[in-house]
């Protein structure tokens, strides 16, 4: 392990919720919950104000609403989150060429790789400068941990939350780790934690005292040896600059189980198109098409088909996903569908993929009867809470809620004071979806 705290771990504070608060002045300092808003939705992120009521990530949204009924509940805006994340990652790459992103809001940085830090004092200065730069560029806060290993840097950033910096001096690791609960260590989830608790091991000190042989007996060789090493503050894992994506996938969970087979087919085709859009945005293609189906009884099935070469052709992916669906029994209904592509490559062999079927197979009459009937009904716009909109007269705003044929919009921007609320018919022609606005407006160069 290193003799200086030159590994930095950054974790943005309540990232999705903080972006929403920065984007919507009326929500600053208020409880905000981001996630799926349907009956089966879960919390993606809760602001610290919402956490005070007991709301946390991965909690069912229905439970969150009971705990914090007056919070703002918003759908995620991933395009904005990705844009802000890229601004943060750019700042990290300016610190060092060795940046290991873990998610949109979290990353390790090796400060020694670029000479940005050589000892505790220079590491602290680098961390403070990074936090200030993040605030300037994005308007958001991030918590920084500095230590001689990845494990300890992550623990330090957790202790720094929110909006702080914690540095663990080399030589103090064992004293810091000792009293912490075993769940603090990577790889100790609820099941392992419960297993250890049943034999009287609840802290990292007790884990170290148990000894390697006992932990191997309790948890198996690989897990036992790894946990014993971490209990002694040993972690030699390097910061890895590139984490190669293994697959690209999309999925949807439905508020009500889908029973109609033609509708399931339509959903699979829609998911295939979304998946291909993500592939193309990443400049990738793939060979293996994967279909995921979670049925009414929570049983989950996956089917896959490997093509002759990589593709990003939406027709090819759609056709493969439809073929996979034919092998799945959806009697009783489905609650989740997903389409993914793996075996990724950064090129496409177009000549191999004139395999999008040119054959026009007849479609059974019953398969089109329902969509034709539905198409005669007027299709109303679907406005979702948190969605960006623009009104021809009132400008940029966001949807606070909709129902009974009306939509309520608050008109404000990241740089404005809290805005006014107005209500419109959902069919108002002056109201249209809009792209998110940047959180911070940079002045043009002179």
Automatic annotation (TrEMBL):
The EC class name is transferase
Binding-site residues, Mg(2+): 11, 105
Assembly description: Monomer.
Matching entries from CDD domains are given as:
PolY_Pol_IV_kappa
Q: Which HAMAP family match?
A: DNApol_IV
Protein name (Swiss-Prot/TrEMBL): DNA polymerase IV
Q: Which UniProt keywords apply?
A: Cytoplasm, DNA damage, DNA repair, DNA replication, DNA-binding, DNA-directed DNA polymerase, Magnesium, Metal-binding, Mutator protein, Nucleotidyltransferase, Transferase
Q: Which cofactor does it need?
A: Mg(2+)
Q: Which GO terms describe its cellular component?
A: cytosol
Query: What organism does the record attribute this protein to?
Result: Streptomyces griseofuscus
Catalytic residues in the record? 106
This chain's function reads:
Poorly processive, error-prone DNA polymerase involved in untargeted mutagenesis. Copies undamaged DNA at stalled replication forks, which arise in vivo from mismatched or misaligned primer ends. These misaligned primers can be extended by PolIV. Exhibits no 3'-5' exonuclease (proofreading) activity. May be involved in translesional synthesis, in conjunction with the beta clamp from PolIII.
Record-marked site positions (Substrate discrimination): 16
Any one GO BP annotation for this protein = error-prone translesion synthesis
**Which PROSITE patterns does its entry note?**
UMUC
Domain named UmuC: which ranges?
A: 7-189
Cofactor binding remark:
Binds 2 magnesium ions per subunit.
Domain of life from the UniProt record: Bacteria
């Amino acid at each position: 392990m290193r003799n200086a705290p030159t590994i930095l771990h950054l974790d943005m504070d309540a990232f999705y919720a903080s972006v929403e608060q920065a984007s919507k002045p009326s929500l600053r300092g208020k409880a905000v919950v981001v996630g799926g808003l349907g009956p089966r939705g879960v919390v993606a992120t809760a602001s610290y104000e919402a956490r005070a009521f007991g709301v946390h990530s991965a909690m069912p949204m229905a439970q969150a609403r009971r705990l914090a009924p007056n919070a703002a509940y918003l759908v995620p805006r991933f395009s904005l989150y990705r844009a802000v994340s890229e601004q943060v990652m750019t700042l990290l790459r300016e610190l060092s060429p060795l940046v290991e992103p873990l998610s949109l809001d979290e990353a390790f940085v090796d400060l020694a790789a670029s000479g940005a830090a050589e000892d505790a004092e220079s590491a602290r200065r680098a961390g403070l400068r990074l936090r200030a730069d993040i605030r300037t560029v994005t308007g958001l806060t991030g918590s920084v941990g500095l230590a001689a290993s990845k494990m300890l840097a992550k623990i330090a950033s957790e202790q720094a939350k929110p909006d702080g910096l914690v540095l663990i001096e080399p030589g103090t690791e064992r004293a810091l780790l000792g009293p912490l609960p075993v769940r603090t260590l990577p790889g100790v989830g609820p099941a392992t934690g419960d297993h250890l608790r049943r034999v009287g091991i609840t802290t990292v000190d007790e884990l170290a005292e148990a000894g390697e042989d006992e932990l191997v007996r309790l948890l198996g060789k690989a897990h036992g040896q790894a946990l014993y090493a971490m209990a002694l503050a040993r972690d030699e894992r390097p910061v890895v600059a590139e984490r190669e994506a293994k697959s690209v996938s999309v999925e949807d969970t439905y508020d009500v189980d889908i029973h109609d087979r033609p509708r399931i087919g339509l959903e699979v085709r829609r998911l295939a198109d979304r998946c291909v859009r993500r592939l193309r945005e990443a400049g990738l293609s793939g060979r293996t098409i994967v279909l995921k189906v979670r049925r009414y009884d929570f049983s989950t099935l996956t089917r896959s088909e490997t093509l002759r070469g990589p593709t990003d052709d939406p027709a090819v992916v759609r056709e493969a996903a439809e073929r996979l669906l034919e092998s799945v029994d959806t009697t009783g209904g489905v609650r989740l569908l997903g389409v993914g592509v793996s075996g990724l490559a950064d090129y496409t062999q177009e000549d191999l993929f004139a395999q999008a079927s040119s054959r026009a197979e007849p479609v059974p009459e019953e398969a089109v009867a329902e969509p034709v009937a539905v198409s005669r009904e007027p299709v109303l716009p679907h406005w979702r809470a948190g969605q960006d909109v623009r009104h021809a007269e009132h400008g940029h705003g966001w949807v606070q809620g909709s129902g009974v044929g009306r939509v309520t919009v608050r008109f404000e921007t990241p740089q404005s004071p809290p805005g006014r609320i107005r209500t419109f018919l959902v069919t108002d022609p002056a109201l249209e979806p809009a792209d998110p606005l940047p959180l911070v407006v940079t002045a043009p160069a002179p």
